[in-house]
Amino acid sequence: MMSSLPVHSSDVFGYGVRQAVLNELASCLGADDSVLSSAHRHALLPAGKLLRPLLVVQSAIAVGGTAFPVMPAAVGLELLHTGSLVHDDIIDGDIVRRGRPSVHHRFGTDRAIIGADALFFQPFALLTGCRQRGVPDERIVAASRVLADAGQDLCRGAMLELDQAGIFRLTVDEYLHMAGLKTSPLLSGACRIGAILAGASTAKVEALGRYGHALGLAFQARDDMLPYDTEPEAAGKPADSDLANHRPTLPILCAHRLADAADRRLIETFLTDGARAADARTRMGEVLHRTGALEAVHEVIAEQVDECHRALSGLEPGPEVVELADMAEHLRPCSTLTSVGGRR
After folding, report:
1. Is there a cis peptide before residue 319, judged by omega within 30 degrees of 0?
2. Whose C-alpha in 34, 161, 208, 305 is 20 to 30 A from the C-alpha of 329?
3. How many domains, the chain?
4. pLDDT tens sequence across 213-251
5. Residue 20, C-beta contacts closer than 8 angstroms, at least 6 positions apart
6. Is residue 18 part of a domain?
């Protein structure tokens, strides 16, 4: 069995860091009764794992900085991520997110789109707020470029994901290329932004960027498995969303490659006209188990976790680096949590 992520990232990063991010997040949300502010509060609170802002903070500390100067930028990453989730739910037709009605289901599609658009702009305003906390202008400019590039990559990845719908014979590398654009940029960007704002060297910024990229690939592969190794309600979103949207996730691609002719036909049926069948997810899970597809995904995750450790080896050892390593280790299949220098 694969170790799952902690319910709260504070299980790895520490309650104090998470609480500081929550306080900063609450302070930047509108307190008025406008529909826009209400939609934002609905989307953002109660908060999820807060992985991206926590990565900003921990990356800054890992290179010798502190949390306070980078906190506005950290919250900005959460706003950008949440805006992308609002749009994802509209595209996918998902009416549940984090165990409650999705924003478009609660406020209507038109208002959800506008609300998400606002979340895409606010991070840049928050990033400039780091200037009032002593961050030099040139670091803010460099971090702004990283933020903009990450957003553009995310959009390229989302477009590529749409193009891949219904394609059964994608290679693992082709799929990881898509995930490396859609999922990894905000994680890699969070790490790089934290390091840049803290004044890290180019080498350390790039090392943390590589860590974030590999972490994003591991996260996406783990997320792809949730419908098949987790209780449906535990994920907080529809378990059949990928099937319903004809999306060949990594486990399904691996199963299609490993399956016999009969199972290939079954996979193709569920990804085309049979995805809404009541037992589609269960029967797809059975195919994944008997083809060995889940084990193949485990190997991909393990490779990316190893890459996280290799990237972190370019940083000076310290407790913050250990915490970043432990975040990756939470994703490793059949592993106990260990730290840099003490892992299997």
Report:
1. no
2. 161
3. 1
4. 999 999 999 999 998 877 655 556 667 788 888 889 999
5. 57, 67, 71
6. yes
